[in-house]
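User
Please review the sequence:
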Amino acid sequence: MTVLEKLTILTDAAKYDAACTSSGSSRTAAPGSLGNATSCGICHSFAADGRCITLLKVLLSNSCVYDCQYCVNRVSRETRRATFTPEELAELTIGFYRRNYIEGLFLSSGVLRSPDYTCEQMIRTLELLRGPYRFGGYIHAKAIPGADPRLIERLGLLADRMSVNIELPTQEGLRRLAPDKSKTSILRPMGYISGRIEENRRDLAVYRHAPRFAPAGQSTQMIIGATPDSDRHIISLAEGLYRKYGLKRVFYSAYMPVTENALLPPPGTKPPLLREHRLYQADWLLRFYGFRADELLDEAHPQLNPLVDPKCGWALRHLDLFPLEVNRAAYEELLRVPGIGVKSARRIVTARRAGPLSFEALRKLGVVLRRAQYFLTCSGRMTPGLRVTPESAMRALAEPQGLALLHEEPEQLSLFRPAPAPARGKEGDHAGPLSLLA
């Protein structure tokens, strides 16, 4: 099999792995070396000047000894198999980089022979790139669950970012669909990588030239829709992963039915792309907006609302907290207003020191008034002629054309009908998803 044929098979096999994002790692090219790494975006992202920055996203091998039912590369599935040698993959990566096709490498693999053997082959590939080829560009490497910690250590010293995929949100899902895997085999390397990153951070504070271990951190991926887990379960698990392992990102991958199995959605079922999108939005609120998982979803609301984004959904369930006076609200309160992001909230806090803000001023500061106007007052007043109820706000925020439904006669006052407090689950409600972190 030629290298081009292998490349065709193994890049196609890697397309289902979503854990690929901006590098978060910076490295200046040393004299005589090739390439560097910058912390701005990598895989199919766009720089400020419009350049598309890309990765070579490929598997070392699509041969696998595991039989995960959701995976196109499982051992029981009939498909063309291919395996790169470390020399072939290193030469291919450098060739692509020199032609300006790529700016880095995303390397994963099926479990070839054993986790240790697979990890050794990945290490050999990266050693060739970092050594003889003196490649200084970005490399994201997948840690192989079950591999010896000493091999994971070596891999982390060669890569910029590492990841260990959780795949399914529960131990029960793993037992049914991936019997060769367990929560222990997945979480053990994740915990090791997390501890090693923290240890390396302390070493670098003392020894400036100490070797860097996975300087861009680690990430993971969960498959959405292959099992009947609720959004509440998934978001609670993600929150626990961020808290316990200090992950940079949790990626959500809508399950694409590519195999026939009674335990999985049948082929032809549409992947839950909208649900995936809502989970990413909720994840963003956890990471940057100060929300907790139990605020976004609870026992009474286990699924994210497909009609509105999670912040709007939260606001519509807590209309008793609105409207906020924009000239007095705290920064943390502003972050919870639909249509106000992190940058615009900071701008508001800075700009109002010079005087009271109007709706027109908010627009200039980057606030999306189409959404925010229903939750804010400026100097005690809302947009003239605006009438708001939970039902009308839901329609307006779900569909742009629904905005007209909120504009009543000018002489009518703006109203906010308080929403009942959301039901709170009993203590320990999150033991299900978080038990995976035990």
Q: What stands out?
A: The longest helix spans residues 183-206. The chain has two domains: 3-257+272-296, 310-406. The two ends are 45 Å apart (CA to CA). Residues 310-406 form one domain.
